[in-house]
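To assess whether ligand presence alters the predicted conformation, the chain was also submitted together with C2E. Input:
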Amino acid sequence: PSGSEPATKIVINLERLQQLPADKVGPLARYAAAIQSQRGDYNGKVLSIRAEDLRSLAIIYDMSPGELTEQLIDWGVLPQDARPANRVD
Ligand code: C2E
Ligand code: C2E
Ligand code: C2E
């Protein structure tokens, strides 16, 4: 496969998320906060979310899931190794 591919394991860095401007990460930050609330999971430094949630977020950001994965890595919200190893630039 070529091009950007979606992350398979999505572990959001919540501390990094809080450092970024709301005009960029607002929708993602609200989504993550909603999941934390539904789980009652408030104390983590990271939050594991569903692959399905990445697809929903990609629609919100008007990107493909692969493009959003790249964006989240660029922001430092996902680790470098969230990028699938076989992707081609
Ligand atoms: P892991 O998936 O590599 O997660 C490592 C650590 O990251 C977790 O240590 C936890 O401190 C943090 N973490 C990851 N995702 C979340 C999250 O959504 N919320 C919060 N609050 N913290 C998160 P922990 O809890 O000691 O778990 C150690 C390992 O135990 C995990 O490694 C995983 O392999 C397993 N584990 C824990 N909970 C689950 C789970 O709900 N499902 C599965 N399949 N494995 C789990
Ligand atoms: P639900 O989807 O009916 O899931 C009920 C419970 O099943 C969850 O309770 C959790 O204990 C377990 N569960 C479901 N799917 C998974 C999974 O992929 N991995 C793990 N480790 N457990 C799973 P919990 O965590 O208290 O969540 C309560 C409700 O909050 C969920 O009900 C769901 O409606 C919502 N929720 C929580 N986390 C997420 C998320 O990451 N994404 C979405 N879309 N909804 C979530
Ligand atoms: P995980 O707990 O290691 O689960 C890995 C994958 O196993 C999930 O990927 C999902 O495909 C499947 N799975 C696990 N538990 C359930 C379940 O109760 N019902 C169903 N239908 N499938 C299940 P997925 O969905 O991409 O989730 C990735 C990670 O996000 C999970 O890793 C877990 O750490 C977290 N997560 C997702 N949903 C919930 C949730 O409702 N509550 C909690 N506490 N964590 C969740």
